[in-house]
Design brief:
Elements: H1 8-19, H2 23-36, E1 41-47, E2 53-58, H3 98-104, E3 107-113, E4 120-126, E5 129-136, E6 141-147, H4 154-159, H5 163-180, E7 185-190, E8 193-197, H6 204-219, E9 221-223, E10 227-228, E11 231-232, E12 244-249, E13 262-266, E14 269-271, H7 274-283, E15 296-301, E16 307-308, E17 319-320, H8 323-341, E18 345-346, H9 347-353, H10 363-379, H11 381-391, H12 400-405, E19 421-426, E20 430-435, E21 438-443, H13 444-461, E22 467-477, H14 480-488, H15 490-495, E23 499-502, E24 507-514, H16 522-535, H17 544-556, H18 566-577, E25 592-595, H19 597-603
Parallel strand pairs: 1-7, 13-15, 18-25
Antiparallel strand pairs: 1-2, 2-6, 3-4, 3-6, 4-5, 7-8, 9-12, 10-11, 12-15, 13-14, 16-17, 19-20, 20-21, 21-25, 22-24, 23-24
The protein binds adenosine-5'-diphosphate and magnesium ion.
Magnesium ion is lined by residues 29, 32-33, 93, 98.
Length: 607
């Protein structure tokens, strides 16, 4: 076989494949160019999911008649001159590949007029070859129309998904950039129908409204903002590298079966990053049900020299110089907001909307109520401390020293519960209590699960899980597949307080179990753990230990349907008060509903 240099046309088609994978990549590149050109209005028109037409019109700086043909040469860019510039990229583009790549695989028409030019230029390229050029009257800015995408690359054409899928991917790109650039007015039409538009008034929340609709938007929490209601939270700043994390996240009850609602931007560029996505997910740990993922729009800003955007032609992957610090900043910012704002469910709103299990309509309202409560509580701080010391068992009182000793302590400035008085039990499932501001309904099972979980995790983090020996061991038989699994996990279980020994073929002897769950049937406790391990469908962020602890706490927690004595209820409530994160069970369901004095008054028509 003879070695040949590929023709210019073939090599540019191959190169184009890296940049232009599908219609949405064309939209992305053209929108990025418009943003780099300083446009304040960007109109995207799509037909046939992008196969027939993608047209992006902007009012940016435009291209001069002298430059317009150069712009379509490979590696032609106005954004980069020297290798040093590569370190300090502030534009979305810099590789000079998009226009040449798109032109190589389509029929492309550009009309552009730069600011000072009297007239515009219209240029037509077919498969990258100039086929027409003329001077035309045109407004300042650039319009690029891409028709017959991939007409000359049949292999690509075959791999395109359905029109619906391509439309969705285009929608995603346009909405992402609209969120990151709220000062720019975007409009997207599919087959002449407006799919999405923003006003460009600079208000991110207005864009979020257009993207997520009113219900979800109302619930979003701002992260890393300088002002949050009456709370002042500084954007997370690293002492050596200024990493700023801002954006919006959903409350835990807003969750999905996949990660696609987590959107990341670095210095205004949308990126894909598994590790940072995971940082967001991890911040929701124990607040979300297993296998569910949150919503997050995360903007990360850092000095350009701290991030390498030149990893792949599509520029959607980046490398950070200090990836651990960026990870930490994202995780801390999200977690901090989440913990600070984790609300008590408000009963009033539930009766108003009539929907149980959805977020109360006046969520934000109840937040400020809580902030008010906290101030009140602080004013009575001494009293509160006395109370907790008097009633909580010594090991339940978390003193300031202990709090700061724990590595997670700074994140855990949670809304602690106020001291509560037990009033009674309803339906053998809920405990009614009175607090400084009205009454609380506590789900006894969910609350107990939370308590056991936190106690267990505290011991486990200290590598000090207390084990309770069994007088007579308890023998358990397993089917062979489960027995093998258990055999592999004996060491892990040991660290968690389960002393289990092989006891003949496919049988095990339980000698001890974690003291925290010592009221459970040892054989049953081991069985649920093994069943759970076997299913193996837990999200990645949960370690095996975590899963075991979650499972064990669930099975050991008091069930709904159990009548509790006054002292049992008091003990439970005191322990819940001592929890760092008392508002949800470890699976993310609420542990309590609050009905404030004001809400009571409103419901009874007293105000
Ligand atoms: P890059 O964006 O990496 O520089 P492109 O191939 O996307 O490369 O674009 C090549 C050049 O064409 C850009 O550097 C820019 O000068 C010019 N250009 C492209 N699109 C526009 C636009 N919408 N407005 C003004 N100039 C543009
Ligand atoms: Mg570009």
């Amino acid at each position: 076989m003879t070695i040949r240099v590929l023709s210019e046309q073939l090599s540019s088609q191959i190169a184009a494949g890296e940049v232009v994978e599908r219609p949405s990549s064309v939209v992305k590149e053209l929108v990025e160019n418009a943003l780099d050109a300083g446009a304040t209005t960007i109109n995207v028109e799509v037909r046939g999911g992008g196969r027939e037409l993608i047209q992006v019109a902007d009012n940016g700086e435009g291209i001069t008649a002298d430059d317009i043909e150069t712009a379509f040469l490979r590696h032609a860019t106005s954004k980069l001159k020297t290798v040093d510039d590569l370190e300090l990229i502030r534009t979305l583009g810099f590789r000079g590949e998009a226009l040449s790549s798109i032109a190589a695989v389509s029929r492309l028409t550009i009309v552009s007029r730069s600011e000072r030019a009297q007239a515009g230029t219209r240029l037509v390229l077919e498969g990258g070859q100039k086929s027409d050029r003329e001077t035309v009257g045109a407004p300042q800015g650039t319009v690029i129309a891409v028709e017959n995408l991939f007409y000359n690359v049949p292999a690509r054409l075959k791999f395109l998904k359905s029109v619906t899928t391509e439309k969705r991917l285009i929608d995603e790109f346009v909405t992402r950039y609209a969120m990151a650039y709220p000062h720019v007015r975007f409009r997207l039409t599919h087959d002449n129908r407006i799919g999405f538009q923003t006003t460009g008034n600079g208000n991110v929340q207005d864009v979020l409204l257009a993207v997520y609709g009113p219900d979800a938007t109302r619930q979003l929490l701002e992260i890393g903002a300088a002002e949050q209601g009456d709370r002042v939270e500084q954007p997370v700043q690293d002492s050596r590298v200024a990493i700023e994390v801002t954006g919006y996240i959903g409350p835990p009850n807003l969750n999905w079966a996949n990660r696609s609602r987590i959107t990341l931007f670095v210095n205004g560029r949308w990126i894909k990053d598994k590790s940072l996505t995971y940082a967001v997910i991890q911040a929701y740990h124990t607040l979300l049900p297993a296998g569910r993922y949150p919503l997050g729009i995360i903007f990360i800003s850092l000095p350009p020299e701290q991030v390498d955007v030149n990893v792949h032609p599509a520029k959607t992957e980046v490398r950070f110089r200090r990836s651990n610090e960026v990870f930490g900043a994202v995780q801390r910012t999200v977690r901090g907001t989440l913990i600070a704002q984790s609300p008590v469910r408000s009963l009033g709103a539930w009766t108003v909307t009539g929907e149980s299990g959805t977020i109360p309509a006046d969520w934000m309202g109840s937040l400020s109520q809580q902030a008010f409560d906290r101030h009140e509580n602080n004013a009575q701080g001494e009293l509160q401390l006395d109370w907790s010391r008097r009633f909580a068992p010594a090991d339940q009182v978390v003193g300031e020293e202990e709090k700061s000793a724990s590595p997670e302590a700074p994140l855990m400035e949670n809304e602690r519960l106020p001291i509560m008085r037990v009033v009674g039990q309803v339906g053998a499932a809920y405990i009614i209590t009175e607090g400084p501001d009205g009454l609380y309904l506590i789900d006894q099972h969910a609350a107990h699960e939370r308590i056991l979980y936190e106690q267990f995790m505290a011991q486990w983090e200290q590598k000090d899980v207390v084990s309770q020996g069994l007088m007579a061991g308890s023998a358990v038989h397993f089917p062979p597949s489960q027995a093998t699994l258990l055999e592999e996990k004996l060491d892990t279980l040991d660290g968690l307080g389960f002393k289990v020994e092989p006891f003949g073929p496919n049988a095990f002897m339980v000698r001890a179990i974690p003291a925290i769950v010592s009221n459970t049937d040892p054989a049953r406790a081991l069985q649920v753990v093994v069943e759970d391990l076997e299913r193996g469908d837990a999200p990645l962020q949960e370690s095996i230990e975590d899963r075991i602890v979650l499972r064990v706490c669930k099975s050991a927690a008091i069930k709904a349907g159990k009548t509790l004595s006054q002292s049992e209820m008091e003990a439970l409530v005191q322990q819940l008060e001592a929890c760092r994160n008392p508002h949800t069970c470890p699976h993310g369901r609420p542990t309590l509903i609050h009905l404030s004095v004001a809400q009571l008054a409103r419901q009874f028509g007293r105000t």
